[in-house]
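Supplementary Note 2. Why include the ligand at all?

Several targets in our set were suspected to adopt different conformations when bound, so apo predictions alone were not considered sufficient. For every target with a known small-molecule partner we therefore ran a joint prediction. The input for magnesium ion is given below.
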Amino acid sequence: MFVDEARIFVKAGDGGNGCNSLEKFAGKKYGRPNGGDGGKGGSVIIEADNNKQTLIDFRYNKHFKATSGKQGGSNNKNGEDGRGCVIKVPPGTVIRESGTEVLLRDLRQAGEKVLIARGGAGGKGNDKKREATLGEKGEAKELSFELKLVADVGIIGYPNAGKSTLLSRITSAKPRIADFPFTTKSPILGVAQVGDFSFVIADIPGLIEGAHRGRGLGDRFLRHIERTRLLLHLVDMSGIEERDPGDSFEKLNKELGLYSSSLRSKKQVVAANKMDIPRAKELIVGFKPAGVKKVHQISALTGAGIEKLLRAVASELRTEKSEE
Ligand SMILES: Nc1nc2c(ncn2[C@@H]2O[C@H](COP(=O)(O)OP(=O)(O)OP(=O)(O)O)[C@@H](O)[C@H]2O)c(=O)[nH]1
Ligand SMILES: [Mg+2]
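The joint prediction is reproduced in token form.
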């Protein structure tokens, strides 16, 4: 199951209390203070890890606690520090404070980590203070996670347009392909290679008009292409679905705009798919979407035109990179 939202609770360890203790000497009325310090509480750390692909781990396991520091002892013995707790999340996890939704951190790359709840400092023993002090409380937080996959290119299109077929042809990913809409139920990533250049491409469930109102599988998967640098807009040119390709193209872009203006303004490479079907050759003549300089004619099934399409995508990504 693909889970891309989660809510968890974290609690850092409390600091151990300082110790009040007096070293007794024979014949002396007052002893020398020798209470040790309390140990520090462990902190909670969140780390992005490539072995994690979704937030499914957090469906049932929602509470994470670091251990508290031990109390100080007599003979100037300091308490042991608490152990930290490391939570692993997939790269692309956005961490917010639950409720306020204040952004705490966006962990994009594997290995990136953040200290999210600090352990409490240990109290001082009476060997340092007149009176031993209490340990501080460790921070406690409720967090919300949102996973936004990190891909360079996102494939968008109506259900059945051939998005998964294309992904399976250009990467080693093995998405389900079938002759009915909404075959793909969750995003899938693959790595495409063009010469020595490679990029990550995401296949997401098909979109339909009204997706922003929840029609079809809705627009909830669009978050996974929000961070792409380029969209590959795949249009079914076969006419099998009784859809006019030009009309579909416009409608899908409208849906993108209704979701977010930044998604709508993302650069698109447009490809007409299923060009192996004779009817597609007739329909392509009338397919002149406004503002689109080139429409790549491909067949994800036979592989025709794919090589050229990939080179165009790679070159767009390269120019964009050099502009950065
Ligand atoms: N003739 C022909 N059929 C194709 C081509 N590309 C895909 N198909 C067929 O179209 C159907 C849908 O393909 P998918 O790749 O599952 O489509 P999708 O866009 O991923 O669909 P959803 O996951 O439902 O959004 C399958 O039966 C494919 O075999 C093509 O270039 N030519
Ligand atoms: Mg699919």
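The chain has two domains: 1-147, 153-323. The mean pLDDT is 93. Comparable summaries for the other entries are listed in the accompanying table.
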